């Protein structure tokens, strides 16, 4: 499964609720705005764990792994990431994933994919 289906990058951070969490939001927004202008960037979504409020997850979608790698070497991104790690007191975790099956935008497409998997 490949590069033509894009990649998803899961970014995990932990932050103590309160003052540090309030300082984290503007940094994440700065990073998101910068990412939006990078070649190959598709989207970003930032989530907080409902059961563990200090755990945050960013799902970042990129057209290719090369696009993602180029973004990781951006000096401005590195500067903001360093600020985030200082604030959280922890290294940010990065994990890259590729889709197992092509994305289906409709129920019909999903059912067609399931039929194909069963038939194979």
Fill in the keyword field for this structure.
120 residues; 24% strand; globular; alpha+beta; 44% helix; Alpha-Beta Plaits; 4 helices
Describe the fold and architecture:
It is a single chain. The protein is of the alpha+beta class and 120 residues long. The protein has one domain (3-119): Alpha-Beta Plaits (2-Layer Sandwich). It contains four helices and four strands; from the N terminus they run E-H-E-E-H-H-E-H. The chain has helices at residues 19-36, 65-72, 75-88, 107-119, and strands at residues 7-14, 41-48, 55-62, 93-97. Strands 2-3-1-4 form a four-stranded antiparallel beta sheet. Strand 2 (41-48) and strand 3 (55-62) form a beta hairpin. The longest helix is centred in the first third of the chain and has 18 residues, at 19-36. It starts with 6 loop residues before the first strand and ends with a helix.
Gyration radius, rounded: 17 Å
Reading the helices and strands in chain order gives EHEEHHEH
- Terminal CA distance reads 16 Å
- Average per-residue pLDDT, rounded, comes to 85
According to CATH, the fold-level topology is Alpha-Beta Plaits
CATH architecture: 2-Layer Sandwich
Low-confidence stretches: none
**CATH class placement:** Alpha Beta
Give a quick summary of the entry.
By secondary structure, the protein is an alpha+beta fold.
List the helices and strands and how they pair.
Blueprint lengths: L6 E8 L4 H18 L4 E8 L6 E8 L2 H8 L2 H14 L4 E5 L9 H13 L1
Antiparallel strand pairs: 1-3, 1-4, 2-3
Helix pairs in contact: 1-3
């Amino acid at each position: 499964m490949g590069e033509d289906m894009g990649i998803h990058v899961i970014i995990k951070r932990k932050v103590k609720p309160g003052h540090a969490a309030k300082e984290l939001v503007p940094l994440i927004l700065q990073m998101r705005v910068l990412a939006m202008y990078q070649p190959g960037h598709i989207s970003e979504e930032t989530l907080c764990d409902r059961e563990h409020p200090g755990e945050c997850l960013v799902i970042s979608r990129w057209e290719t792994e090369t696009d993602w790698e180029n973004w990781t070497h951006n000096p401005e991104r590195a500067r903001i990431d360093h600020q985030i790690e200082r604030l959280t007191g922890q290294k940010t975790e990065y994990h890259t994933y590729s889709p197992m099956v092509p994305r289906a935008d409709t129920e019909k497409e999903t059912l067609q994919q399931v039929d194909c998997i069963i038939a194979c």
